Model the fold of this input.
Amino acid sequence: MHIEDNLSLELHITNARNLSTVPKFPKMSNLMSSTTSKIMLMATRDYCLTINSSTTRVLTFHRRLNCSAAATPRLVPNPPDLIKWVRREGGFVHPSVRIAESSPYGLGLIASEEIPKGSELIALPEHIPLRFPVPESDGGDDSYSNLVNLSRYVPEELWAMKLGLKLLQERAKTGSFWWSYISNLPETFTVPIFFPGEDIKNLQYAPLVYQVNKRCRFLLDFEKEVRQELEDVKLQNHPFGGREVDASSLGWAMSAVSSRAFRLHGKAFQNDVPMMLPLIDMCNHSFNPNAEIVQEQGSSDPKMLVKVIAGMNIKERDHMTLNYGCLSNDLFLLDYGFVVPSNPYDCIELKYDGGLFDAASMAAGVSNPNFSSPATWQQDVLAKLNLVSEQAVLKVTLGGPEVVEGRLLAALRALLTNDAESIQKYDLNTLKSFSIEAPLGLANETATLRTLIALCVIALNHFPTKIMEDESLLEKGVVTSTELALKFRIQKKSVIIDVMRDLTKRVRVLSSKESLASQS
Done:
């Protein structure tokens, strides 16, 4: 497994539920120190207006880290009725759609009575979705121009932060059109950037820890860039109304978008356009959803930009669900803040490395010098698989629908044979698949599978705890971040065990065939 040093950065969140008290602001790791003492003066809407020695107004977002998933607090107590707002703004909401708790995901949508398949559940006109402003359509508003300038610091892979800037702007704006929507957003998100440092380590999985730390570093650096860019901006041109935002508030906005936004495409859009879709984004996830999004504008109702349709009969009290995508638990936890049990798309990431495969082959009893020093024709195969060269993609995976990533399977098959002519009989797609059993012979296939099983054992041994220990900790009752970290690592270990079981069955089948072949 690709193991890197665990750098734990913590985005601290103020536990200020009672706004009449003075909150304590903890340090945000060694990369960020508190430079001024802040005294709370008053609470305005969803933010707390504070003042420091330089008399700068500061927008400090208060939310708890460990909130119960069964009672997710919203930004303000008793927010406006979101369904009524959507209808008032020209949208459609089915009479049987209700907002209710949807454990373990918090608030969701349920049916108050049975809804037939094909029924329109929600329809939003084009002015309701929240999207990032197009630079050419800012109408000369310098505050939007400054927002666009800030967005240029955001890398494409963190597209959620770009739309998050727009969300923060509307959150800070008095009288925002989207206030009825924003006030209904969760006060906190359970994504790992808000985990305590110890629970980031508790993930026990280096690839995800790396991504979490990468996002934390970005937020800390981006906070500094935002402050520098807006330091001398006049109040009327300030994208956040003169208020500063810190790394935690930027993290809140990025998490709100990554966990709720949709990337729409189709004839109505030139490119994939990330949008926040009020009410629609309260549909929770399922790989077998009972609803689906229709992204095209219909001729019967051209003003409606996006609709949600019942994909099957929805029974009374059933929750309305959409498929967020065929994603691994890495992405579900990183972007959405939850872990899917027995996720068929979950996988384990390994780094393709000759030394690692040498160790695995030795453990499997099929030691082969080709891993450390492959023959020229084997190097050609590895090059075609993009596993050698300066631009090589060394990440390979175990698990998911393929069980073994095709590139890894083909590489092992090629390295564990000395017959160059047999390789030439098959194209790479055949070598990358289990669809043809033992294309290079039973002995080669058995050696390949045993090496893969040894890789699984090595990967499993990288976890410092066993599943039984993790389950015992869960039974004792832990805070939400620890619970998610435990569930995540349990699922990762389960993926490895499932792959080992699958491969072991294949070895047994091959062994039976080898026995029959030797007898004949």
User: Anything to note?
Assistant: The domain at 347-519 is CATH 3.90.1420.10 (set domain protein methyltransferase, domain 2). Residues 1-71 have pLDDT under 50 and may be disordered. The chain has 16 helices and 17 strands. The CA atoms of residues 9 and 213 lie 6 Å apart.
